[in-house]
Amino acid sequence: MAARLTREALEALGRVSTPALANAIETFGLRPYNQGFAGPEIRAIFPALGTMVGYACTVRIAANRHAASGNAGAPLAYWSYIAGSEGRKVVVVQDLDPEPVGAFWGEVNANVHRALGAVGTVTRGGVRDLDEMHQAGFHVFASAVLVSHAYVHVVDFGTPVQIGRLSVSPGDLIHADKHGVLVIPSEIAPELPRVAAEIERLEREIIACTRDPAFTPKRLAAVWDSVVSRWPTPPRARRDGRTHR
User: Fold this and answer.
1) Which of 36, 42, 76, 97 has its CA 20 to 30 A from that of 104?
2) pLDDT digits over 5-23, tens only?
């Protein structure tokens, strides 16, 4: 597991939008461009809270059936796992029910997990008590809003989980905002704000061209080709002469 970033490095990531970081990650060639982010079913419930950055603590839950015998009391082992995890924490929850039935997250669990050091959650399950959770400043990225907790209970924790199309392992670095949820490869995380800023500067050249009174498709093509020639690309793409925009 890569070393945890400093608070300053995490805050630097928090000042960059999730799409801008997705662009920056592509330039390192570490994974296919269609991997590493959640699908549209996972949305920001409180987009006004801004960006969430932290390290994944993982848990699997179910709500459409009773907890197994001996698993119905206070989840002390799970709470201890969250409390003992290092750094700024994001609780990533896989709901094992085929469709979300009961909400794991509400006013109580938001405050419990804040006390355990978590700043928010990503869940394929449901949430409730929206006003109270928002007031607590707890980031929520979820697939459903539900009325009841039903039979919700922790099944297990500290293992890889699947959140729709996104696979998350304990300790993964999570970045999320109103656009969605992204896993950041920790080994390149400190470099990403710089690369994202470089990409933004290049994009601004295209935008400036479109706003110029002398705009023509021919001028746009010239600016576009210039930008593409300077676009950060993965090492293999540089060797093969390929670029991406």
Assistant:
1) 36
2) 999 999 999 999 999 999 9
